[in-house]
Amino acid sequence: MPVPKSTVENSPRRLLRDVVLEKMLTAIQDGTLQAGERLNDDELVQWLGVSRTPIREAIAKLVDYGLVEMEANRYTRVATPTREQFDDAVQVLFGFTELAARWGIPKLDESDAAAFSEILESVRGLAEAEDKRVNAETVRLVMFLVERADNALFTSFANTLIPRVQFLALTSDEFLFWDVKHSVDPLRAAVKARDGEAGGAVIRAMGRALAGHLETIRDARA
User: Fold this and answer.
1) Which pLDDT score is estimated for 11?
2) pLDDT average, residue stretch 46-68
């Protein structure tokens, strides 16, 4: 495992295990920790500059997320994502986001609606420019709706689902879906009317469009 020079800086406002988890999540998603790579306690201690306890706690969370595989007395390693897992996760993500729209949009106040519109315009701009950052901005959009749904269990599930989808997306460069820009105006209209059902319908249509996009791309590559 490559050992970067940076170390974790603890914050009195955050648990050390959460800081370590965030660092390891980023390392898995950017390829510093690669699929199939074994995780060695001593190397992780050296890299992160913390004791084994917060590292083990963070790894337990990563196992829950499906990003790390562990078998007692044999190995702890970064999971190897498959296309089938990616497809399953994306299907769940769109169903989940549809619920977030249905529950969250009716609860938006004027300030929320303005902030959400800014995110939508950012998504549109990145998609039109075919900028890969559109995926991260779309995640921000989803989490905005999740938070406005104001359901603790829903938010907890999102915090597990989103990292898993981002990890599994490493198997599919075709996940870059520029046509998301076509959903911006219908979502803006749904938000203006505070119509959660209309917003959910937009997300559902987006999911169908992405499924068709993936099928087309894969057929062309076959």
Assistant:
1) 47
2) 92
Please name the residue that has the structure tokens 């406005």: 148
pLDDT of residue 13: 60
User: What pLDDT score does 58 carry?
Assistant: 93
DSSP state letters, 175-201 = G--GGGGGGHHHHHHHHHHT-HHHHHH
Pull the structure tokens for residue 79.
């999971």
Map residue 20 onto helix, strand or coil: helix
Instruction: List the beta strands (DSSP E) in 23-179.
Output: 68-71, 75-78
CA pair distance 115, 120, nearest whole angstrom: 9
Please name every residue paired with 69 in a beta bridge, in sequence order, or none if there are none.
Answer: 77
Q: Contacts by 115-121 with C-beta closer than 8 Å and gap 24+?
A: 115/144, 116/141, 116/144, 116/145, 116/191, 117/188, 117/191, 119/144, 120/184, 120/187, 120/188, 121/184
Classified as helix, coil or strand, 138 is helix
